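2024-03-11 09:14:02 INFO receiving multi-entity request
2024-03-11 09:14:02 INFO entity count = two
2024-03-11 09:14:03 INFO echoing inputs for audit
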Amino acid sequence: MSGASIAMHMSDGIVDAPTSAVFGLIAAGGLGYALVRARAQLDERTAPMAGLVAAFVFALQMINFPILPGVSGHLLGGALAAILVGPWLGSVCVGIVLIVQALLFADGGLTALGTNITNMAIIGTAVGFGVALALRPLAARGRRWLVAVAFVSAFVNTVVASLGFVLQYAIGGAGGASLGAVAVSMVGLHALIGIGEGIITALTVGAVASARPDLVYLLRGKAPRPRTAPAPQVSPEGSAS
Amino acid sequence: MGAGHAHPLHLPGTSPVHRLAPQVKVLTAFLVVCCVVATPREAFGTFGGYLVLLAAVWAVAAIPPGWIGRRALIELPFVVLAVLLPFAQGGERLDVAGLSLSIDGLLAGWNIIVKGTLGVLTSLTLAATTSPRDLLLGLQRLRVPATITTIATLMLRYVEVIIGEARRMRIARISRGHDPRLLWQAGAVARSVGSLFLRSYERGERVHLAMLARGFTGAMPVLAEAPVTRREWALGLLPVGIALALVVGAWWAA
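2024-03-11 09:21:47 INFO inference complete, emitting structure
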């Protein structure tokens, strides 16, 4: 790995203890709700499907891309997961990846887990998918439009997740003053990360849409509600590879 | 190569720390970090106390401090942020070697560095002494919903497969003249990510069918519970007691 790698995983001590506790509760509630919705969508398929999608998100985060000379960012994958498998399963997967990274890989502080989950798994994914949902009529027009919508959604996801950090820093930042400088540098940096994230998300969604358009959650059906009836489970080519 | 997430930080061993029930260790690590975060930033000696506490745990667990130290570098990006604070922050200023530094910024930077470092060291200690499977078992016994732990278990079981697949795709791309540093070649990366997703998703469908064939009903069977004795809890939570004494002492002095 060359140069510094910017991950948005906050460490311990950036926000104070009460703020960490409050966002811990928000994260637990949000993740719990997303889990309930994901189970309604997938039933007993939840565990294996979410497990594999989470493994995919985990592997995805190993991809570094250059932002500035010597600085690289890695993918978050929140918007990508939400567009491909839906916001509920997407949130759950990103949240679980964050939990595992904090516990097994010391990436992100234990007390910062609540703030990290809130920013990346909940706020980022929700707003990113909200943008994609609002632009869905555009995305349905064709592959080129879908790619553009995926880019905007991933860009917004990244920037909004960094705004979550700014909010937490404003509430309980251990640094105190100069919130403006923090906001400008965080949002500026993440706008750059967001461009990289947006490009890769857009092209990935495009690639999936041309190979298996039925798997792109954003394009499914007219109504955005997940289907509860048992879905067709395995495609014939699924068992071949 | 950015393989930062790929290798677990587990250091197998048979020390008392390794053998402690995982739920006790997870709870202890979490509570100790809570104490660290709640410590006032001016209590310099208290942070030294935490470091001595961690060093004692490493001694019991037979973890070389250098082993931990090398892995603590993961925290570096935040140190960069903390180093910038004394320059960026306003308020009362201090002149050191011709540089004008903000006292408040210095303290804020120190606060982030020391708490972040102690947090990373604690997490590393937990990860070093607990296998991934045990960590998830510990979460389950701490009443984390079974769906979460099942998903995490399956994720860990397959993440190496997916990463291996991603690595093979990368080697295939590079051997065909791909250069990942060039932004205009992002298309190739993205198409690989796209097929990685399809392969992961379809593997999930196959795994589900395989699980069904083995009698999966939507929940993983609970394995035999080994009861944790009161003595084990007391011993395991001893670091929390010490950390609590340190943080209370620091607030008392402040």
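2024-03-11 09:21:48 INFO post-check: Strands of chain B lie at 93-96, 99-102.
2024-03-11 09:21:48 INFO post-check: The first strand of chain B starts at residue 93 and ends at 96.
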